[in-house]
Amino acid sequence: MPCTVKNNSNSDLTQIVGMTNEFYPYAKKQMGFDKDAVVVFESDLENASNPLGKTAFYEPSSRSITVYVDGRHPKDIMRSLSHELVHHTQNCNGKFENLGATEEGYAQKDPYLRKMEEDAYRRGNLIFRDWENQKNLKENKKMKTSKEELINLVEKILGDKQELEEQELEEQELEEKVENPGPYSGGERQKKGVDTDGDGVPDGADEEPEDGSVQEEQKVEQEPLKEWWDSSIYNKLLKEYTKR
User: Fold this and answer.
1) Is residue 159 part of a domain?
2) For residue 193, what are the CA distances in angstroms to 160, 224, 236?
């Protein structure tokens, strides 16, 4: 469950608050604390103007983490939060009991507090880094899936377009065949140059086009018929004179 987050700054921390709510359950599981903390994002311009000013601190009595946000990168703010959550874990484990107020330089003067500070630096950075990598892997996988889905969609659209174009081409060719059937399309007997009306002339051979012209394709088709007709006349004459 998300932790309690308070934004006491005048900055829009929507992104950072969102990351805090994502990171907090992961940190709680990895660090193992059993009491929830309160996270306060604070603004302090005087502190921000100091190059060695405070970045964050933890109050054991109220289980409150305060993180300064002025002029800081969101990732740096999240590292500070992770660091202080380790101190919160130490507090939940009773390691802050019987400790007095901490002074400036406590991590250098007190061996016990130094070990706890080392723990906070080590675990805080590592746990945040692990969460960061895990989040990046999920985002990359999501982007890869979206990219594959987009490629599949484009391929489907192109495939449908090609299929539609082929179908339109087939329909166009069929329409052209119906509108322009070509010479000798009236049946097999006429196509083969058969004399069906008994006038001794193949069907269509004695018919003149209405415009008085012969198309090129008809000329090509009629040449074999002309040879056949000439051959027939020759045979008839040959037979006639042979009888005499």
Assistant:
1) no
2) 46, 9, 18
